[in-house]
Design brief:
The protein is α/β, with parallel strands linked by helices. The strands form 2 sheets. A 5-stranded mixed beta sheet has the order 6-5-4-7-8, sandwiched between helices. Helices cover about 35% and strands about 15% of the residues. The protein has a domain of about 120 residues: Ribonuclease H-like superfamily/Ribonuclease H (Nucleotidyltransferase, domain 5), CATH 3.30.420. The protein is built from 11 helices and 8 strands. Bound molecules: zinc ion (ZN).
Length: about 325
Amino acid sequence: MSTTAVNPAKAPGKHYRQGISLIELFEMFPDEAAARVWLEAEIWPNGRVCGHCGSKQTSEVTHKSMPYRCRDCKQYFSVKTGTALASSKVPLRKWAIAIYLELSSLKGVSSMKLHRDLKVTQKTAWFMLHRIRTAFAPDRAEQFSGPVEADETFVGGKAKNMHAVDRERRISGRGGVDKTAVVGVKDRDSNRVAAVVIDSVNAATLRPFVEDHTAETATVYTDGEPAYRGMAREHETVAHSVGEFVRGQAHTNGIESFWAMLKRGYQGVYHHFSAKHLQRYIDEFAGRHNLRELDTVDQMGMVARGLIGQRIRYVDLVASFPAGTVSVPDGEPW
Ligand SMILES: [Zn+2]
């Protein structure tokens, strides 16, 4: 989702973001029709458009699930056509509530909680959450003007091994068994974050990521990780190894607080991010972070519009798991 144009921190006269209480949420979405009106206004701000071909030559028809027909391509469509919600049978009201819950829960929402809150199966809840996550897919071409903090971390691993792995990491300075490396940047000016999963921590993965996500004039702060050396950016380091965590502006506290939130979600909500889906979880946390200054109603609109053009199929999500597997990929029971 491209949110480059929005810099809430700089918006005039905006000191406090407006949340939505649960009572207000159900007043906003008293029934299915209200949810449809909301979603149509977000998806089609300039009038109804065919989700198959993009034509504006459309008309209303009396079809239960496809209330519109395109006069150009002759196909029936609904507001879900051409979005990540295509062919979903879940009522739009439940989708709106799921989007709200996903945005208002800083550590994320487990499929078990959504299953209970919406009375859908846990399998449906799990698939819904992955579809909502596609709306957080960032604009990978966005470049931060800086100053920028860059840092890498390790996510995942079995909970019972966590202490040993953490100990190993402290000793070796590197990740451990079962862990997946992630590199991220945070722009101190806009507070925006970008992060991607990487195969390994080395100059060939870290340097191009930082250079791709920062303007040439940006100053970059990192820890003493040698792989960041030689970037085509003004670069300052802080040496964690000698206890020097903050030296003037040379610190990485901002990106580290983002990692801390990601890890609280991992430990408190999801318990396991499978490596296959990890980027989607990273996008969720970064996307939620980048929208956090907006009013909740505007956050919900951004997510609704982010669903446009996204497509994710259940068979692809579970493809790497053999038939008869008894747990969903997040390690949660069905
Ligand atoms: Zn059409």
